[in-house]
Amino acid sequence: MEKPERRPVPLAASLAGLRLIGAGAVLGLALAVPASPAQADPPRPPAATQDSSADDAPES
Protein backbone atom coordinates (compact mmCIF):
# COMPACT_ATOMS: atom_id res chain seq x y z
CA MET A 1 0.00 0.00 0.00
CA GLU A 2 1.25 3.42 -0.86
CA LYS A 3 1.11 6.27 1.58
CA PRO A 4 -1.35 8.98 0.57
CA GLU A 5 0.20 12.28 -0.39
CA ARG A 6 0.09 14.91 2.33
CA ARG A 7 -1.33 18.19 1.18
CA PRO A 8 -0.42 21.35 3.11
CA VAL A 9 -3.33 22.97 4.92
CA PRO A 10 -3.46 26.76 4.87
CA LEU A 11 -2.95 28.39 8.25
CA ALA A 12 -6.28 30.23 8.06
CA ALA A 13 -8.18 26.98 7.51
CA SER A 14 -6.28 25.32 10.33
CA LEU A 15 -7.07 28.12 12.78
CA ALA A 16 -10.71 28.19 11.71
CA GLY A 17 -10.94 24.47 12.39
CA LEU A 18 -9.38 24.88 15.81
CA ARG A 19 -11.82 27.66 16.67
CA LEU A 20 -14.72 25.46 15.62
CA ILE A 21 -13.45 22.58 17.73
CA GLY A 22 -12.94 24.92 20.68
CA ALA A 23 -16.45 26.34 20.35
CA GLY A 24 -17.86 22.83 20.25
CA ALA A 25 -15.93 21.90 23.38
CA VAL A 26 -17.20 24.96 25.26
CA LEU A 27 -20.77 24.25 24.19
CA GLY A 28 -20.43 20.62 25.17
CA LEU A 29 -19.16 21.54 28.62
CA ALA A 30 -21.92 24.09 29.08
CA LEU A 31 -24.55 21.49 28.27
CA ALA A 32 -22.89 18.80 30.39
CA VAL A 33 -22.70 20.86 33.59
CA PRO A 34 -26.00 20.79 35.48
CA ALA A 35 -27.68 24.17 35.70
CA SER A 36 -27.63 25.87 39.07
CA PRO A 37 -31.06 25.98 40.68
CA ALA A 38 -32.88 29.25 40.20
CA GLN A 39 -33.12 31.38 43.29
CA ALA A 40 -36.58 31.30 44.77
CA ASP A 41 -38.48 34.51 45.33
CA PRO A 42 -38.41 35.75 48.92
CA PRO A 43 -41.35 34.43 50.94
CA ARG A 44 -44.44 36.59 50.67
CA PRO A 45 -46.89 37.25 53.46
CA PRO A 46 -50.12 35.26 53.32
CA ALA A 47 -52.82 36.61 51.01
CA ALA A 48 -55.19 37.15 53.96
CA THR A 49 -52.86 39.81 55.38
CA GLN A 50 -52.77 41.69 52.10
CA ASP A 51 -56.56 41.54 51.66
CA SER A 52 -57.30 42.85 55.19
CA SER A 53 -54.93 45.80 54.74
CA ALA A 54 -56.70 46.72 51.50
CA ASP A 55 -60.07 46.64 53.32
CA ASP A 56 -58.80 48.99 56.03
CA ALA A 57 -57.93 51.74 53.55
CA PRO A 58 -60.59 54.46 53.32
CA GLU A 59 -62.35 54.74 50.00
CA SER A 60 -62.25 58.13 48.32
UniProtKB/TrEMBL annotation:
Domain of life: Bacteria
This protein's name: Uncharacterized protein
Sequence segments annotated as region (Disordered): 35-60
